[in-house]
Design a protein that fits this description.
Helices cover about 60% and strands about 0% of the residues. The protein has about 350 residues and is mostly helical. A two-stranded antiparallel ribbon has the order 1-2. α3 crosses α4 and α7 (about 205-220) packs antiparallel against α8 (about 225-245). The longest helix is centred in the middle third of the chain and has 61 residues, at about 90-150.
Length: about 350
């Protein structure tokens, strides 16, 4: 043996039937091989070796699966859906009833404005013609009574004249076509086919209708839960209704911008079951009241005329005016004949 040289004892070869161990890094303890029994069902590559210990100063392995999922364990009760609250069906019913009432009220209000506008045009364009016919009927009755002297003819002449005598408030009823002194110059000009300024058209445009419906839906007082918010919405909606009645599309556009920049109403808060039942009852009564208004509008004479030409009511007014002028011409001819006989 050489001086200063330390030789490790030779490593004996592995016994037959064993798998050689992999090279062992310096400073570690080799693993003990496991003998493979002939005829065993396990394969040599599946043989298990004892894991070598960690090196000094090395990093340990990361957390295992049990450590990673610690604290994430759930129970079957946590996965079960929560039962619905008893008020949820009532809340859905209230919301549906509110929306249906708003849509119904918008439809009735739109129809009411159309009827009022058509009534105003009807009075402006046809009112003088009706007044002229009544005047001619009175003059014809008076001419007949003067010719016959019959008491019955005299009574009929007095009744016909009473129909055309001025009465208090007639100017408001006929929208400025006549007063206590008779017809205004504009009415006389229309009857004599003179040039006259046409009445102002007040039927709202399609854009005005769109703006009105949108504002009525967003600012409707029935959507408010607080009394102060309800009053604010009622005041605002009255301005919207006035602008729509005049067909003022510009003002409706300004009101839409004003509402968009106004205070945002608070979100709807859930109500107890008894308040929801009371709300449904109030909505039902409100709908019945609006239904009465709609029925009165639909049964009126002006609404009946409007239904004859909903897409072009101006043409209908022109046709009626033509027939009235023909009646006036017929009565004027009859009156002239009576006066000639007398």
């Amino acid at each position: 043996m050489r001086t200063g040289t330390s030789l490790a004892p030779p490593v004996p070869p592995p016994p037959p039937g064993t798998t050689p161990a992999p090279p062992v890094p310096p400073g570690t303890t080799p693993a003990t091989p496991t003998r493979h029994r002939p005829g065993s069902s396990s394969h040599p590559v599946h043989q298990h070796f004892t894991a070598p210990p960690h090196r000094t100063g090395g990093q340990g392995p990361g957390p295992g699966p049990a450590q990673r999922y610690a604290g994430r364990v759930t129970t079957p009760e946590a996965d079960q859906p929560q039962p619905p609250r008893p008020e949820e069906p009532l809340e859905r019913a209230v919301r549906a009833a509110e929306q249906a009432l708003i849509e119904y009220e918008i439809a009735v209000e739109t129809f009411r404005v159309e009827v009022e506008n058509f009534s105003r045009l009807h009075e402006q364009r046809l009112g003088p013609l009706y007044v002229r016919i009544e005047e001619l009927d009175a003059e014809i009755a008076e001419a007949k009574a003067a010719r016959t002297g019959d008491p019955e003819d005299i009574r009929r002449a007095a009744e016909a004249r009473a129909h055309v005598l001025p009465i208090p408030g007639v100017e408001e009823l006929l929208h400025g076509w006549m007063d206590g002194d008779g017809l205004f110059p504009e009415a006389t000009a229309m009857l004599t086919d003179q040039e006259v300024r046409p009445p102002q058209r007040v039927r709202p445009s399609e854009e005005a209708r769109k703006l009105y419906r949108d504002l009525a839906r967003r600012a409707h007082p029935d959507l408010a839960q607080e009394e102060e918010e309800r009053k604010r919405r009622e005041e605002f909606l009255s301005r919207v209704n006035a602008a729509y009645a005049r067909g003022d599309e510009t003002l409706l556009t300004e009101l839409a911008a004003e509402w968009a920049t106004g205070p945002v109403p608070p979100e709807r808060r859930p109500s107890p079951a008894e308040e929801l039942y009371a709300r449904l009852e109030w909505l039902s009564q409100r709908k019945d009241l609006i239904a009465l208004v709609a029925r009165e509008l639909e049964e009126g004479a002006i609404a009946g005329l409007l239904r004859l030409a909903p897409d072009d009511p101006d043409r209908l007014l022109d046709e009626i005016a033509g027939r009235l002028r023909a009646d006036i011409a017929q009565r004027e001819t009859e009156l002239a004949a009576l006066l000639a006989e007398s």
